[in-house]
Structures are given as structure tokens and as C-alpha cells.
Recover the amino acids of this structure.
């Protein structure tokens, strides 16, 4: 496997804490969240009825950091992409490798995390 | 034949002891005499009754069925005035005689009435019994000037209760600082500042000379010459044991009835328990040692003499939200060989002081934050060696999750200090009785039925160990921050918390969710009248982009159109905007406005700019619209100018937030063409007057609004509507519509607290409304100063060059 290529996206200052910001990335709509210590990137589409996750509120379910879809309050774990409330076995939200380096948010070119795994 | 046990005193000590006796094998025929006519109630919670937090029924400990079920004769309203030890009889003031084999004296204590000139005037009370509380409640209210003599535990709780009833309260305290038997000078000063920030006036070193007034009290004169106005006085100058009865019977009495370690008096068949007793020179005023006495006495009297009472470590807790005080042990730091560890944070009003000797805790004072008092009490009781904990004495590591804090406690740890319920006993109740709610736990173990301050700890323990744990959810806002909204308002106010995150960090789980964050956002806004720290991450998307999200992720745009009145020019602009941005649907709404539906998020600021109109708040829990009929402007039936009045009402209230959406209407005659009778607030014009109605609904349910008041002038009508509006803002539960709000409070109370309140109270409501209004603005003006990528997606820099979005390079 070739070295992953990290692409600078935006300054961390442009992502207010615990609020989503959207981005077109490799033909997909992505929701970026600044969770303070880290950033996460998921596809901006709730598996339930395609609500824009970027507009959801960051919250928690039993200690797991989630985003609540603004349309029908599905709670999605930002680490696994799973809908954890109400608990369903449905499809996950795709997530993408993201990190902060020197105050800049970086996304990894090429694969989604699910495919990389 | 059964032995006859007579109990003099139907209070907490006597009845608790009887409960303990019932647990043993016994052969008693029990009769309890009480001079109050009530069944046994929780005297510690009288201040909660006064504060309006609890009803009389809520504090009953043993209802009449309990007496019947246990074959106990209850003789209530009988005052025993003589004990004849030679004949083993007791005699009541009403003339009846009862013979006993064993006698238990639990006469408690009474309030000390200092010999102050005029203390017998009407309106001067002590605060000791349920009847005292009822008298105080009847006389207290908005505008009443109340003076409390005595800045001890009981005086301060009474002061807070009276203040919550609307009284203007001044506390006069003889000593140099408040609660001087429980606090050092600094602690007293911190407490004084806390109480003053809650609106209670405190005067120390105040010696009362006389109560003035003809018949009813009108003032309090101090020895330094000052006189304070007072319609109501509460004397809380301490308590003294009711030991006179025992003294005249010939029993050994000093200040209290002398008892030994088995709770025996100087007569072999007579026992005593509670505040009337004296043991090793100690008197008792707190519940924990008394219940310890009750257990020992129950063993002694049932022939199981063995357990002994050893005295106690004094510990006190003041139960005033935001002004918590905990004090235990000996806090004197001038003694030889003791070390003092202190924390003072004047901004937060927190003061903590620990007294240690040889790495063991001897005394503790907490003011402003007594949340971890159980930890200190445990160290104190067990004489824990604190060598390893010196770095964390005052700041324990924060618990990571519910139950983790309690998980670390040993099973022997006392959770409920009042009732001596250990962690192990609670776990046992869960396993053997299937306890899974706090109510069941109270029932089985009596934990949290004393002062109630351990309820939170019991909850978290239940949560951790009970498999079927069920929270009494109706009350608390959310699992993330388990307080009621009333408590949260008080916390936000008294702890000066201006941001949602602060509340979550200190009183919640630090993260929050979509349920509690918008509610907290509302509460900090309304408590600080707009002078709060706005946190958009705690707002629903509608309040981040000031538009209503639709099923496809687009938004709807409703410009304000006050009173449903528009102009050709405005309509032209709306038409132009709809075409320019390809708005898929233009619709006239039920609120006499125009809705542009299907707008993309990134177009929002541009549409607002092109429209040049104000936000209609059609997306938020706030002021929606004021619907109007044509009124006297054109209508031949119109009696009042509904349009001008409606437009003015909307102008005064727009841009403000409310617990839930608020819809208003003004109609010019009782034909009610703009449906004012089914709006949250409606003004109904009639010949020469306006009716103001509130709490109407025409949604899932239909409810006709209730009449608030009828007034003559338009200005009075606008003021009445404003009073109700602000009252709802300050007292409504988040997501509670006015129709639930008025039903919950009752229209009588709503009227009394708004249009029929004193001028000072009304002015207060109007002033706070005005301050909020002064700080509010049209949300759509945010287009001139957007936050980074608030509306448009992030654009990836083509050459990897990353720029920070600022005001200058943000564009509209």
C-alpha cells in the first residue's frame, strides 16, 4: 500500500467547537466535527431518511460521543457510525480518517475508513 | 398480660423509637400522646413547606394507617402536664389519666422566646411546628416586609422560605457572623454574601430591643437606635429542651433529661429520647444522633439491653439552593497540633476549610458547595488516615460516569447520615426487595427521608446497582444534568453561570444532548436577560441559521410582517427574491405571513439581505406573530384599533425567546376574527375596554384562553400582556406551552403574580423584560457578521493554502 496522502482542508478556527461544518470531498457530502481534542469526518447523510448530520447537535449516549440527526433525532455514534439510539442493526454512516496538525484539519485522500479497514 | 408503654411525644424521635421497638420481639400495648393534632411529620422539612417546595402531605412520615396497622393508639391533641411516678400514671391537661408500666419521654424541644419587649404582638412568630409554618404561609406574600431574628440554621431556612413566598427579608443576627456555632468568621462572611446575592438582607451584631406597633407588629427596634419596618417577624433564637414535665416528676434533669448510655433516666421504668435529653452534658438538635438513640433505646426497653449510645460528632447542613453549608467536627484552627487546609474562591462564593491532626480529619466547613460532604463526614467518622490523599483533599477526581463515584465507597459507608443507612444496606434492599426507584428505596430503608440531601447519592447508587433502575424522570431536565428546571434556574442565578457548557461542566456530565442543551440555552438567556454567553453548539440547527429545517435539509424563510400588515413594495421584494433564488414554494401561512419554502442553507443570508425584512422567528421557541383583524381601521363593526395595537404589541415583544413558541392575536371586537381566544396571549377589544386572555390553544388540543384581566386603555392592555409574557418566560418550563403553564400554576396564582401583584413586582417584571429587549436584536442581521462557514460549505483550498475565515474575508 502506498503512503496515505493527507490533504489540508481548513484551519481549525473555522470549525467551531461541537458544531458541524459541511464539505464536498471526493464527490461526497462530508460533515466535519471539531470535538475539541480531535476532529471527525462522516458522510453527511443519516442512514434513516438522509437527514443532514452536519446540522445535528453533538451529544452523548452513555458516554459515547454522538450526533443527533436534526430530522428525526436518530443518534449516531461518531466513532463507529452506528445508529445507537434507537438501537438498530441498520447500515452505518461512513466515516473518513481526519486529524489536526499544526492547527490545520487534514483529510486522507483515497479511501473511506470502512474501506481502509 | 401485655405491658403498657406510654410515649409522650408524637414527633420524629418518639415515633422513630416506636418503629425500632416494633422491629424487636416485644409485648407492649403502645399509646402515643402528641400535643399537636398532626400525625408524625418530618420537622426538618418544614422550611421546604414554607418555601413552597413541598406540600404538608409530602412531609408526613407516618400516616394514620401506620398507627392502625401496628395497633398503636394515637392520642393526638392531648398535652400531658403531669407524671405521677409513684402511681405510674400520666395526666393530660384535658383531665384524662393513663396508667403505664413503662414510660418513654420524647417531648422534644421548643423555640426559645427571648424576653424582648413586644414579643407577644400579633405577627411575631417562632418557627417550630407545622402550625407555625401554616401561619407564616398565610401571612407571607409579595411586598410583605419580614424580619428574621437569628442567623442560625433554622432562621436562615425560614428567611429563604419567606423570601420565596415574595417577602422582602432581613435577617438580624446577634453574633459577629452567621451560623456562628457551625462556621468560622470567614465562612460566615461567605454565607452572608451568598444570601445577599439571593436578595436577603443580613445585619450582624444586631441586638433587638423591641418590637413596635399597636397590636400587630410594625417594626423592629435595635439597641443601636435603628428601626426596621416589619409586617412579619420570625424569632429563631435557638431551642431549649422540653424537660419541665420530667423535672416536676422528680427525674434527674439538668438542661435536658439526664440519660445514660442505655437511654435510661433516673427511674427504672422511665426512658427518654431526642431533643429533650442530655447525655454527658451534650444536648441534641440534629436528627442523626437522635435516631442512634432510638435504636439503642428500643433494644434496652425490649429486654435486649446491650447496645450503647456514645454521643456524636456534630454535623450540620444548611439546605438552601446555591448557599449550601456543611459543617462537622471541631473547626477551631487555633488549637495546638492542628493543620488547616483552606480554599477560598470569592468569585464563585466557595469556601472550604479542613482541620487535620496527624493526617486525620477533625473538622470541616464547606460553604457554597457542599456536594461532597459525605466524603468528609466519612473521613471524620472513621478517622481515616489521609496521608495518601493529601494532594486531593479538597478536589476529588471528577467521577467519570454515574455510579463510579459511589462504586469507590466501602459498603460500610454511610449514605444517609440522618437515618444511618449504609451503602451496604441500600445494595441489600436492591437485591432482596427488588428496589429500583428512589421512592421504593425511601420506603424500604428510609434513606433520603431525613433532610433529603443524600437523594442524589442514592440515585447514582441505585443507577449503578439496580438492574431495573427507573428514574423519576418527570422532574429532572435530563440524565445529562439531573436537576429540575427550577433548581437549574436557581443554580444558574446563584452560581453566576452564564454559559451552557459551564452548567454542564459543574452540574452535569460535561457533554449534554439535544434535550438539555437547548433548554439550558433558554434558561441562561432568560435568567441573565440576554447578558449570557451564547453557545451556538448548544442550539438546535434552526437557531444556528435562523430558519426552519425541512424534510430534505432545506430551510423555510418567514419574514416578519407585524400584525399581518404588508405593503406592495414588500410583496414585490418577496416576489423578486422567490424568483431570483428559485424558491420552490411560496405559501401564505396561518399566521398571516408569507413562507418561502425549500431554500438552500447557503442562500439564507443573501435572501435576508435582498428582502431587507426582519426575521419572523418562525423557526424558534419565541415570539411568532401577532395576528390582527382589520378592527376600527376599516371594519364597520370594529370597536378598537386592532391593527395599531397588534403591530405595537409585536414590536415590543419580537426577537425574544420563550419556553415554547408564543402566538398572539389582537381583535377589535368580540367577533374574534383573528382567533384571539385560542392564542397564547389574546387581546379582545370591546366598547371602551380590552379583555386580555391567556393560555389558549388550537393545535393538537383546543383550549379556550382564560381571562387575565379587563382594562380600559390600550396602554394598560399592552402592559398586562407584557406582564404575563415575562412571567411565562421566567416561570415556564422549557417546552411548556402557555396552555399547560396556566393549568399547572392555576389562573388565580397567575393573576396574583402578574396583573394583581404589587407595583414593585410588576415593575420588576417589566424592567427585566425591557433589559432582555434592549439586548435582543433581529437574528437575520447576523448576515453582516456571519460565523465561519455558518451557511456555506467549506471550500478546500486548491493549492493547500489554508485561510482562517474572518469578518473581513467572509462575504455576503
Amino acid at each position: 500500500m502506498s503512503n496515505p496522502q493527507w490533504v489540508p482542508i481548513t484551519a481549525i478556527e473555522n470549525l467551531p467547537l461541537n458544531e458541524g461544518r459541511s464539505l464536498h470531498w471526493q464527490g461526497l457530502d462530508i460533515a466535519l466535527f471539531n470535538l475539541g481534542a480531535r476532529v471527525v469526518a462522516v458522510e453527511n447523510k443519516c442512514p434513516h431518511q438522509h437527514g443532514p448530520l452536519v446540522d445535528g447537535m453533538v451529544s452523548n449516549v452513555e458516554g459515547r460521543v454522538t450526533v443527533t440527526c436534526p430530522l428525526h433525532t436518530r443518534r449516531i455514534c461518531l466513532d463507529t457510525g452506528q445508529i445507537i439510539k434507537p438501537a438498530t442493526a441498520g447500515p452505518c454512516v461512513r466515516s473518513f480518517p481526519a486529524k489536526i496538525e499544526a492547527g490545520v484539519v487534514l483529510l486522507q485522500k483515497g479511501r473511506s475508513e470502512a474501506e481502509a479497514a | 398480660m401485655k405491658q403498657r408503654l406510654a410515649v409522650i411525644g408524637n414527633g420524629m424521635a418518639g415515633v422513630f423509637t416506636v418503629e425500632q421497638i416494633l422491629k424487636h420481639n416485644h409485648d407492649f400495648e403502645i399509646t402515643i400522646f402528641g400535643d399537636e393534632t398532626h400525625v408524625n411529620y418530618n420537622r426538618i422539612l418544614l422550611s421546604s413547606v414554607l418555601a413552597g417546595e413541598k406540600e404538608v402531605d409530602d412531609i408526613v412520615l407516618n400516616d394514620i394507617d401506620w398507627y392502625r396497622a401496628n395497633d398503636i393508639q394515637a392520642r393526638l391533641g392531648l398535652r400531658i402536664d403531669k407524671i405521677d411516678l409513684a402511681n405510674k400514671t400520666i395526666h393530660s391537661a384535658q383531665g384524662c389519666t393513663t396508667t403505664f408500666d413503662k414510660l418513654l419521654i420524647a417531648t422534644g424541644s421548643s423555640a426559645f422566646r427571648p424576653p424582648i419587649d413586644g414579643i407577644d404582638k400579633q405577627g411575631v412568630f417562632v418557627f417550630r411546628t407545622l402550625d407555625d409554618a401554616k401561619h407564616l404561609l398565610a401571612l407571607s406574600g409579595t411586598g410583605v416586609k419580614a424580619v428574621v431574628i437569628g442567623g442560625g440554621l433554622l432562621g436562615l431556612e425560614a428567611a429563604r422560605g419567606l423570601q420565596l413566598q415574595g417577602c422582602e427579608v432581613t435577617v438580624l443576627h446577634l453574633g459577629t457572623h452567621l451560623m456562628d456555632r457551625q462556621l468560622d468568621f470567614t465562612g460566615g462572611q461567605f454565607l452572608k454574601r451568598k444570601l445577599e446575592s439571593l436578595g436577603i438582607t443580613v445585619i450582624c451584631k444586631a441586638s433587638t430591643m423591641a418590637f413596635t406597633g399597636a397590636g400587630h407588629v410594625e417594626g423592629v427596634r435595635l439597641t443601636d437606635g435603628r428601626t426596621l419596618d416589619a409586617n412579619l417577624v420570625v424569632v429563631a433564637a435557638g431551642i431549649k429542651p422540653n424537660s419541665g414535665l420530667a423535672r416536676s416528676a422528680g427525674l434527674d434533669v439538668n438542661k435536658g433529661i439526664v440519660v445514660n448510655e442505655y437511654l435510661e433516666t433516673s427511674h427504672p421504668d422511665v426512658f427518654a429520647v431526642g431533643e429533650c435529653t442530655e447525655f454527658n452534658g451534650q444536648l441534641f438538635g440534629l436528627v442523626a444522633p437522635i435516631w442512634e438513640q432510638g435504636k439503642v433505646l428500643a433494644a434496652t426497653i425490649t429486654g435486649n439491653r446491650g447496645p450503647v449510645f456514645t454521643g456524636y460528632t456534630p454535623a450540620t447542613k444548611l439546605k438552601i439552593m446555591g448557599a449550601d453549608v456543611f459543617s462537622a467536627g471541631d473547626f477551631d484552627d487555633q488549637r495546638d497540633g492542628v493543620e488547616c487546609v483552606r480554599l477560598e474562591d470569592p468569585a464563585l462564593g466557595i469556601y472550604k476549610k479542613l482541620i487535620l491532626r496527624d493526617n486525620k480529619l477533625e473538622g470541616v466547613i464547606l460553604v457554597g458547595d457542599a456536594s461532597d460532604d459525605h466524603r468528609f463526614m466519612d473521613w471524620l467518622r472513621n478517622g481515616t488516615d489521609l496521608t495518601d490523599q493529601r494532594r486531593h483533599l479538597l478536589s476529588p477526581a471528577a467521577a467519570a460516569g454515574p455510579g463510579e463515584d459511589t462504586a469507590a465507597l466501602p459498603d460500610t459507608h454511610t449514605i444517609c447520615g440522618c437515618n444511618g443507612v449504609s451503602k451496604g444496606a441500600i445494595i441489600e434492599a436492591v437485591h432482596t426487595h427488588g428496589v429500583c426507584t428512589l421512592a421504593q428505596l425511601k420506603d424500604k430503608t428510609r434513606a433520603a427521608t431525613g433532610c433529603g440531601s443524600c437523594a442524589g447519592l442514592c440515585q447514582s447508587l441505585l443507577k449503578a446497582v439496580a438492574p431495573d433502575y427507573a428514574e423519576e424522570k418527570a422532574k429532572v431536565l435530563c440524565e445529562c444534568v439531573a436537576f429540575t428546571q427550577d433548581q437549574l434556574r436557581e443554580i444558574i442565578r446563584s452560581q453566576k453561570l452564564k454559559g451552557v457548557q459551564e452548567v454542564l461542566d459543574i452540574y452535569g456530565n460535561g457533554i449534554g444532548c439535544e434535550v438539555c442543551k437547548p433548554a439550558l440555552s433558554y434558561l441562561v438567556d432568560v435568567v441573565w436577560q440576554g447578558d449570557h454567553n451564547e453557545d451556538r453548539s448548544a442550539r438546535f440547527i434552526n437557531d444556528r441559521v435562523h430558519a426552519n429545517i425541512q424534510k430534505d435539509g432545506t430551510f423555510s424563510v418567514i419574514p416578519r410582517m407585524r400584525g399581518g400588515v404588508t405593503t406592495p413594495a414588500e410583496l414585490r421584494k418577496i416576489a423578486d427574491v422567490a424568483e431570483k433564488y428559485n424558491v420552490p414554494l411560496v405559501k401564505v401561512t396561518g399566521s398571516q405571513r408569507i413562507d418561502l419554502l425549500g431554500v438552500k442553507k447557503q442562500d439564507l443570508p443573501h435572501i435576508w439581505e435582498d428582502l431587507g425584512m426582519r426575521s419572523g422567528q418562525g423557526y424558534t421557541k419565541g415570539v411568532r406573530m401577532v395576528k390582527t383583524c382589520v378592527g376600527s381601521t376599516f371594519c364597520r363593526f370594529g370597536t378598537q384599533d386592532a391593527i395599531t395595537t397588534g403591530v405595537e404589541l409585536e414590536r415590543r415583544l419580537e426577537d425574544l425567546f420563550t419556553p415554547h413558541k408564543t402566538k398572539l392575536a389582537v381583535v377589535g371586537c368580540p367577533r374574534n376574527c383573528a382567533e384571539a381566544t385560542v392564542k397564547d396571549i389574546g387581546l379582545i377589544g370591546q366598547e371602551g375596554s380590552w379583555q386580555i386572555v391567556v393560555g389558549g390553544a388550537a393545535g393538537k388540543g383546543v383550549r379556550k384562553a382564560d381571562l387575565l384581566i379587563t382594562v380600559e386603555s390600550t396602554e394598560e392592555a399592552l402592559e398586562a400582556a407584557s406582564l404575563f409574557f415575562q412571567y411565562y418566560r421566567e416561570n415556564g418550563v422549557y417546552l411548556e406551552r402557555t396552555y399547560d403553564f396556566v393549568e399547572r400554576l392555576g389562573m388565580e396564582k397567575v393573576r396574583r403574580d402578574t396583573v394583581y401583584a404589587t407595583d414593585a413586582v410588576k415593575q420588576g417584571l417589566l424592567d427585566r423584560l425591557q433589559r432582555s429587549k434592549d439586548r435582543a436584536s433581529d437574528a437575520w442581521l447576523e448576515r453582516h457578521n456571519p460565523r465561519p462557514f455558518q451557511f456555506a460549505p467549506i471550500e478546500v483550498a486548491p493549492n493547500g493554502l489554508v485561510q482562517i475565515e474572518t469578518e473581513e474575508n467572509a462575504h455576503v
Q: What stands out?
A: Confidence is low (pLDDT under 50) at residues 113-117 of chain A. Helices of chain A lie at 113-116. Chain A has one helix and eleven strands.
